[in-house]
Amino acid sequence: LNARAQRLDMKKINEKVCGSLGDAPCGESPCGGAGCRDDEGNRHCGGLNCGGAVAAADGALERARHAEKELSEAMGEMQGLFTKVAEAKSQAEEAKGKAKAALDKATATKNKVERSNNNLRDLIKQIRGFLTQEGADPDSIEAVANHVLQLSIPASPLQIRHLADEIKDRVRSLSNVDAILQQTQDDVRKAEKLLLDAKRARHRSEGVKTTAETVKQALVDARTAQASAEKAIAKAKADIGETESRLAQIRSEASDGERNLDDAVVRLGTLEQEINVLKTKRANNSMAAARAEETATMARDKANEAKQILDGQLTDKYNEVQQRVDTKAKAVHGAKNKAEGLREEAKKLLKDAQNKLQKLAELETNYEDNRRRLEGKARQLDGLEDKMRDILKDINKQIQIYNTCQ
Question: What residues are paired with 216 via a beta bridge?
């Protein structure tokens, strides 16, 4: 029974959960173990350089929190970049609107001037044709001259100069396009760098996830060991019950010995009564009394000898049985208390491991949510980058048109 109780030290569970075998005293074990407490009275299990499930769970939890912090910072930076890109987009849209308005006005003016030039060319051709005709009289020539004098340019020189100045102002207002494009390119580069950092953080988080899965497997092993320990405790309880039954049987045998001792005492009382009877007969017959006294003396000596022998054997046997019962009872009681303490400690360790496993599951869920949000933001950023490139192409095309017109 002592050997079975010694096997309930749960060394393997201590090694898997706390990182140490648990055979060293709590004060000397850096990783603690079942039943160990620190200076403040808290349970001591795991620590630095300890390879148990508790240390692995704490490390994975810390790395998951660090990854979550990095993702939060990345989300904040992404939000700032989105704001800058939105501002750049607004400025580009405003510049595009101004450029389009200037282009429309310049196009309308160009069309108007071209129509006027065409009309003048037609008129000059008509005048040349009229002047080269034979037989043109002075009155017809005067009428044509008056008609030419009445013609006017579609816009006055002042209006044309004002329109040219306005077109130049519109073109100069587009001079900030290069700065906007440069700022947008910087934001795009920052966004790409941030996206790369986010991908690295995601890879690190996937590594944390792998570690968390390893911790889960360790916790599963701990649960299996806990089940084995509970079976061993149940077996110890059964052995304790069997021992208590054996103790009851021993107590019953001791009670039988006590009853035999009482019977011997009763028989000694009967012998004393018979001696008294013999003493009475001695008064009537001295010889018979002498012989009876001798017989009684011998019987009394034998009875005393039998009593001493019986008393000694029963007392020694009773003391030996009582000592064995006390020793086994103490051993069983100590083993029972140790088994109960280890079982309670194992339950607490299992509960702590389950709580940490739940926290890991929650962090894993938060990580997946943040990863999906980050991927959505990355897709939005890619869409904004494509739109900005299209806007830049349109602006560059309009600038080329303006340069051609000038």
Answer: none
